[in-house]
Design brief:
Strand content: 25-35%
Number of domains: 1
Oligomer: single chain
Largest sheet: 5 strands, antiparallel
Shape: globular
Structural class: alpha+beta
Distance between the termini: 23 Å
Strand order of the largest sheet: 1-2-3-4-5
Radius of gyration: 14 Å
Length: about 100
C-alpha cells in the first residue's frame, strides 16, 4: 500500500465522520475500534451509492448510521435526542471534509 498524503486525508475524514455519526470524540472512537465494540460494514444503498454502516452501543444509547462521502444518515435515535424514533425513521446530517 502506498503512503500518500491523499490517503491519510481520506482516512482522517472517514474517522471524523464515524466519530460524528456515533456521537463520540475521535480519541474515544480509536479505543472503541481497538476494543472491537464498533461494527463497520461496507454496503451500497438502493441507488448504488457506497456507504459505511457504523454501529455502537446498546439499548437507548445505541447509535447506527450510514456514513456516505458527503453526509451521515442516522438510523433510529439521532445523537443528542432522548426519545426513541421508529426504526424506519432516519435523520440526515451533512458532513464537511476537514482540510
Amino acid at each position: 500500500m502506498s503512503e500518500t498524503p491523499e490517503l491519510y486525508n481520506e482516512v482522517n475524514v472517514l474517522f471524523g465522520s464515524l466519530a460524528k455519526a456515533l456521537d463520540v470524540p475521535e480519541d474515544t472512537l480509536a479505543g472503541l475500534l481497538e476494543a472491537g465494540t464498533v461494527t463497520l460494514e461496507m454496503a451500497r444503498d438502493d441507488q448504488g451509492a457506497p456507504f459505511v454502516l457504523a454501529a455502537h452501543g446498546a439499548g437507548e444509547t445505541r447509535r447506527v448510521a450510514r456514513v456516505y462521502k458527503d453526509r451521515i444518515l442516522h438510523l433510529g435515535t439521532m445523537p443528542g435526542n432522548a426519545p426513541a424514533l421508529e426504526p424506519e425513521a432516519a435523520h440526515e446530517q451533512q458532513t464537511t471534509p476537514r482540510r
